[in-house]
Design brief:
heterodimer; A: 252 residues; alpha/beta; 2 domains; 6-stranded mixed beta sheet; 4-stranded antiparallel beta sheet; 9 helices; B: 311 residues; mainly alpha; globular
């Protein structure tokens, strides 16, 4: 890993809620193009880490640099502007609107910055882009359906597709396969990772399913009680004693 | 700007009304003037309602618009309807922009009641201030239109209808813009809007200021049409309640809805008062309940349904 390739630098990150330490001594470098899996038991600090990187939570101390620029103190909107995007454990979409309308709004916000936000939203160019996203994420069949009527899997796909339309350089996915059936999870991830590969996005995703981790990531960060206890390849991580004990739950 | 059906209906329907108004009796012209004036405030509430925000205090801006007209008439002798309108819209817009910094941080009942509180402070100040007319208010001179002092109400009707057309077209255009489309999106999920890169606070602030300007225009035009301003008919919380009532009666489906809803309200109130002077509120209340139970999308939902069935 060369320094010039590093897109995200996290140093001595600390987050406390009163006496509770949610994250401490987190030091991570993420390079451009990496696909990083974040694993850990419930309450290990995975989502807390994602929330701090994406501006949802302010760290108590430490530094987060994205492309060399400090992003601590920036809110979700500024973080999104700078090129970091995210999806959520519980999909965050516009539930009374159709899939196509959701994507149009996402595309319009991404494309129509500043005074352009006052121009008419519905344009031929945006509709073409929307159709491309619908195809890429295999959402065409659901385009005209209201989100509240859709399955969790489709909502998750839409959530990720909406996060990507702003062309982020780094994407954080919080448990992308939660709520998706065992039979569908690989198909789902194939669609997502295939689409993200085309966009050349650096990806960090929180995951509980070790089969998914083994199959899709190039590097694993294992969290335990707010700290990173392993930072290695998936093969090594899944064989690591600490990971076995504190993440997977197998005693030696 | 006129590519969609709504814009065409607003423009051609409005122009047709202006033509027909020349032959209409005075009482009908009056109903339309009052109805369209109030509808401008309702149009602003529609923008807020689509965003999931209900204000129970927009009589504040309605009253500011009306009192701005009265003050520049009495203090400076300004009689031109357009200057009066400009004064009403400007003062309401400035107040809306200023209070918007606070109100954009509140939602639900807090947003609704903070607006009520602000309007009741103004009501209290006016009622207790002799120089602002106290409880009696002011009589306003007959407005002039571009230097002419009209002998009938028709020129004022033309002005009010023209302002209604322009406002409806402008709001319709705004609602189709990216920031305008963020109404339902913000109501559904503020977190997602922020993570798409748009400031929810700024979007709500803009919508709130637009609604204040429209309510200011409404108050200014109503003051011209009535020839009188007083705190009870311009700023009291009952006026805010009336505006919310007409918003629900109209429905949020289209920018034409507030104009239809306001006219229905004018007719309903006039005939309810004629039929039962001591219990007219009973008739209005029963209508309100009927709308909530049977037409939750307001009168516009019925019109939209009829339109769909026809096609």
């Amino acid at each position: 890993m060369t320094k010039s390739n590093v897109i995200l630098e996290v140093r001595d990150l600390l987050k406390t809620f009163g006496a509770v330490v949610a994250a401490k001594d987190i030091n991570v470098d993420v390079s451009k193009g990496e696909i990083v899996g974040i694993i850990g038991a419930n309450g290990a600090g995975k989502t807390c880490f994602v929330n701090m990187v994406t501006g949802y939570l302010a760290p108590t101390a430490g530094s987060i640099k994205f492309e060399g620029v400090e992003i601590i103190g920036k809110g979700p909107r500024e973080v999104t502007y700078s090129g970091i995007s995210r999806s959520f454990q519980v999909s965050q979409v516009f539930h009374t609107m159709t899939v196509a309308e959701n994507l149009m709004i996402a595309l319009a916000i991404a494309e129509n910055r500043g005074m352009k936000a006052l121009a008419e939203m519905d344009s031929h160019e945006l509709r073409e882009k929307r159709d491309t996203v619908l195809r890429r994420y295999q959402l065409e069949a659901y385009a005209d359906l209201t989100v509240s009527a859709l399955s969790q899997g489709v909502r998750k796909l839409l959530d990720i597709a909406m996060a990507v339309v702003s062309k982020p350089r780094i994407l954080l996915l919080d448990e992308p396969t939660s709520g998706i059936s065992v039979e569908e999870k690989f198909d789902f991830m194939d669609v997502v990772m295939g689409a993200l590969k085309e966009d050349e996005v650096t990806v960090l995703f929180v995951e509980h399913d070790m089969e998914i981790v083994e199959r899709y990531v190039s590097r694993v960060l294992a969290f335990y009680q707010g700290e990173i206890i392993a930072d290695m390849t998936p093969k090594k991580a899944l064989a690591d004693d600490k990971v076995q004990e504190f993440v997977i739950g197998k005693r030696h | 700007m006129l590519r969609d059906t709504t814009s065409k209906v607003v423009l051609f329907g409005g122009l047709l009304l202006i033509l027909l108004g020349a032959f209409a009796p005075n009482w009908i012209v009056n109903q339309f003037m009052f109805g369209f004036s109030r509808a401008l405030a309702v149009l602003g509430l529609l923008v807020l309602w689509r965003t999931g925000l209900v204000s129970f205090g927009h009589a504040f801006y309605f009253g500011l618009g009306a009192y701005a007209v009265a003050i520049i008439d009495i203090q400076y002798g300004v009689s031109d309807v357009f200057l009066r309108l400009l004064a009403g819209a400007t003062i309401a817009g400035i107040a809306g922009f200023a209070f918007g910094f606070i109100l954009r941080n509140y939602r639900d009942i807090f947003f609704a009641m903070l607006n009520t509180a602000i309007s009741m402070v103004l009501y209290g100040i006016i009622v207790k201030t002799e120089s602002l007319g106290s409880t009696d208010g002011f009589a306003i001179s007959v407005p002039t239109v571009l230097g002419f002092a009209p002998e009938t109400k028709y020129p004022l009707f033309v002005v009010i209808t023209t302002i209604a057309i322009i406002s409806a077209l402008a709001v319709n255009y705004y609602l189709k813009s990216t920031v305008g489309q963020l109404t339902t999106a913000i109501r559904d999920n503020e977190i997602r809007v922020e993570y798409l890169g748009f400031s929810v606070a700024q979007a709500i602030h803009l919508k709130y200021t637009i609604s204040a300007v429209l309510a200011g225009c409404a108050g200014a035009l109503m003051a011209n049409a009535l020839g009188q301003v007083d705190p009870d008919s311009m700023i009291n919380w009952t006026v805010s309640g009336e505006l919310v009532f007409v918003t629900i009666l109209s429905g949020p489906g289209n920018v034409i809805a507030p104009f239809i809803g306001s006219l229905v309200f004018e007719v309903l109130r006039t005939y309810a008062f004629e039929l039962a002077p001591q219990a007219w509120q009973l008739i209005v209340g029963a209508t309100f309940l009927t709308i909530i139970f049977f037409l939750p999308g307001g009168i516009w939902s019925l019109i939209a349904k009829l339109g769909r069935n026809k096609s």
